[in-house]
Amino acid sequence: MNSLASADTSLNERASLLGWDCVEFWVGNARTTAGFLMSAFGFECTSYAGPETGVTTKASYVLEQGDIRFVVSGALSADSPIAEHVRKHGDGVHDLALRTTDAAAAFRAAIERGALPVREPWTEADESGVLELAQVAAFGETVHTFVNRSGYEGTRLEPGYLADNLPSTTVGPSVGLTRIDHIVGNVEKGRLAEWVGFYCEVFGFDQLQQFDDAQIRTEYSALMSTVVWDGAKIVMPINEPADGLKKSQIQEYIEHYDGAGVQHIALRTDDIVSSVQALRDRGVRFMRVPDQYYVDAKSRLAAFDLPWADLQRLNILADQDRDGYLLQIFTETITDRPAVFFEIIERRGAKGFGEGNFKALFEAIERDQDRRGNL
User: Fold this and answer.
1) Do domains 9-148 and 177-372 have the same CATH topology?
2) What backbone torsions phi and psi does residue 14 show, to the nearest 5 degrees?
3) For 7, 52, 236, 367, which has the most beta carbons within 10 A of its beta carbon?
């Protein structure tokens, strides 16, 4: 199914989605968070907006690596929506911006199919051209901004951002992250079907995979998950908690984040061993799995010649499907509340999400929950 499908094919063509534009974090201290992502994850600051550039409502740092673009924004006043968002949720993802050929058409198509408007289409202009934007609501207080860059030739994020006198860091080796692989959202119990329907009916996405609580379960907790996608570049697993003996990681997220939101962002690399080693050298902390995992994994993936000594040393997980294999690892949460974390993933043909690793991953998460007293 095509993005934003409609009986009006010309509208569908004009409103087609092209992929992720950027992910915007709303945080308590943008300067500090940007510095952390630069020094720990190897991002480069490419532009900045704030009082020095004529923007009086927020301070924002644009961070890039490969095709990944993050925007880290902090409030400049107590009555800012950013300040209120941080007060309620802590640091987290506010905007999952989507590149489109026509922001106004994408907005109209989404609203006609039931999306809630956040901001009607508008334009931003400077000497580099005109940027067209529009915004609709998603799960929790997350939003999707439609971004049309076809009339904007600037390399900056948007008007009001400048590339002068930017913070820089040379700490640590190159990390080698290339693109966003997928972005995972957590929603409240009983609302998974609603939000899967939203992305399928409103955005025209398809269901790529579905996992029930029998597949994603440990001794203590469980969850259900459905993966929706646009058929090309935008992949979004959506999770809801399921009943278990104790509290699931999704329920812990919902309670501490105070609602639905983005749980983690998976970042692609072409060489996960080098990337994870670089990240560890930069001080990034990852979830750990027991050595027994690798005994089982070597048996499961016996058909592949993998660098098992490096994988075990770095705690990297491995899985396979009919198309090939993947390697993945998950950071600890990067926020004070147990909410947002990153996944690093290398795909060698596999199109799945590490189903064979679910039990090992969730047991690692449960160990962290238990240390926090939230299991």
Assistant:
1) yes
2) -70, -25
3) 236
Asked if residue 104 lies in contact with residue 121, where contact means CB atoms within 8 angstroms, the answer is: yes
> What span, in angstroms and rounded, lies between the C-alpha atoms of 179 and 163?
22
The two structure tokens encoding residue 264: 């983690």
The Cα-based distances of 271 to 77, 197, 303 in angstroms read: 42, 36, 20
157, 244 contact by CB (below 8 A): no
CATH topology of domain 177-372: 2,3-Dihydroxybiphenyl 1,2-Dioxygenase; domain 1 (3.10.180)
Q: Which pair of tokens denotes residue 336? A: 């004070």
**H or E segment to which residue 41 belongs:** helix 30-41
According to the model, what pLDDT value does residue 369 have? 59
Q: Token match 């990297």: residue?
A: 316
Class at the top of the CATH hierarchy for domain 9-148:
alpha beta
CB 130 within 8 A of CB 152: yes
Strand locations in 159-231 (E): 177-186, 206-211, 222-229
Length of the chain: 375
Structure tokens at 157: 């994020």
What is the predicted pLDDT for the residue at 136? 97
> Which residue numbers in the chain have pLDDT < 70?
1-15, 170, 211-222, 244-247, 356, 358-372, 374-375
On whether the CB atoms of residues 368 and 220 are closer than 8 A, the answer is no
> What's the confidence (pLDDT) of residue 374?
57
Alpha-carbon gap, residue 49 to 255, rounded angstroms = 33
Residue 81 in tokens: 């929506």
The domain locations on the chain are: 9-148, 177-372
Q: List, in order, residues 6 or more apart from 108 with CB less than 8 Å away.
A: 11, 15
- Which pTM value belongs to this model? 0.90
